[in-house]
Design goal:
Elements (H helix, E strand, L loop, with lengths): L2 E3 L5 E3 L6 H25 L8 E4 L8 E2 L18 H11 L5 E3 L12 H10 L4 E6 L6 H8 L5 E5 L5 H7 E2 L3 H17 L6 E8 L7 H11 L3 E6 L23 H4 E4 L4 E3 L12 E2 L5 H5 L2 H11 L7 H4 L11
């Protein structure tokens, strides 16, 4: 990823920057870094590695209805629920052998899960490499902040998206900007009182044509609050689920590296090749009674990889209209 360092030592991530001119310039270094993957990829043939990052979805329930999310526009149609803690432990017990990074969130608010602190602690006990959680920040209070600050979590990311009250209220339905900002400030305060180095704190903003003039004020505000990272994310269509939009970046069918390095597990145990598959349309298999690695390299997954490698993404409905960032081994 491409990062810009602020004077206070914080970093801003511009790897997925929205605006096409800046997007093109900022992704140059990102492409060069990812070329290393493709150099290996081209030499290794059909060799498949273990996933180095795994998204685990504690729940697909959410307390908000953001308009650029499948919750907000009612395109989320799959059954809602909460991951069984025993299933979670089964997953962690298996993957802890190679210690991947874990993202403990999916299409939902992870803090809604009553066992979320236990989930974090169990993954830390099993020495998973890096534990990341993204929240909308509305559910934090003193007690939960104290628990998170001492849970073993490495990174806590707040999805804020705007410092304009009107815009925030309109796009993040059921959220309260003042409450979210207050909760972030309070968490940083509690973390300091506990003399905890982790979790690092980040905030993110989904950039649109409507809020692009607020990027500077957004950075200034949260830099002053004392967050460690500031992320600027482009808006995407959840692997075609939300349809096309005018912000989409036109590009050829390049190879996506997700099916080789990343995997997602839904709350009910289905393994997906991509975290953008909000409706679990391309289920690889269920790991409730199967090993993750067995499902990870089954025939369905091999077919997907083959299609992407050969530039045939149109054969995969999930990938056909996806507007997420793809790069190839070509400049």
């Amino acid at each position: 990823m491409t990062y810009i360092k602020l004077r206070n030592g914080s970093y801003i991530n511009f790897s997925y920057f929205l605006f096409q001119k800046i997007y093109h310039e900022q992704r140059i270094n990102y492409i060069r870094i990812r070329k290393k993957f493709y150099d290996f990829f081209n030499k290794s043939g059909d060799k498949v590695l273990r996933p180095i990052v795994i998204w685990i979805e504690p729940t697909n329930n959410c307390n908000l209805k953001c308009i650029f999310c499948s919750h907000g526009n009612k395109s989320l149609t799959r059954k809602k629920g909460f991951m069984d803690y025993n299933l979670y432990k089964k997953i962690i017990d298996e993957v802890s052998v190679w210690r991947p990074s874990l993202y403990l969130h999916g299409i939902g608010e992870p803090l809604l899960h009553r066992k979320i602190i236990d989930m974090i602690k169990y993954a830390r006990l099993k020495k998973c490499a890096f534990l990341h959680l993204t929240t909308n920040g509305m559910l934090l209070n003193d007690k939960l902040s104290e628990k998170l600050a001492n849970s073993g979590l490495d990174f806590l990311r707040f999805s804020v998206d705007s410092i304009s009250r009107d815009y925030h209220k309109r796009v993040k339905v059921n959220s309260d900007l003042d409450k979210v900002v207050s909760n972030i400030e309070n968490f940083i305060k509690i973390k300091g009182e506990n003399k905890a180095k982790r979790p690092q704190v980040g905030v993110s903003m989904v950039c649109t044509k409507e809020n692009k003039n607020k990027i500077g004020p957004f950075i200034k505000k949260f830099k002053n609050i004392g967050v460690d990272f500031i992320f600027m994310n482009h808006i995407h269509n959840w692997a075609g689920l939300l349809g096309s939009n005018k912000l989409r970046v036109k590009r050829p069918n390049y190879i996506c590296w997700h099916p080789w390095y990343f995997s997602t597990v839904t709350w009910d145990g289905y393994l997906l090749p991509c975290c953008h598959d909000a409706n679990a349309r391309y289920k690889i298999g269920n790991i409730s009674k199967n090993k993750l690695l067995d499902v990870w390299d089954n025939n369905k997954m091999q077919f997907l990889r083959k299609c992407l490698k050969n530039g045939k993404s149109e054969k995969i409905p999930l990938c056909r209209n996806c507007d997420s960032l793809f790069v190839s081994n070509k400049e």
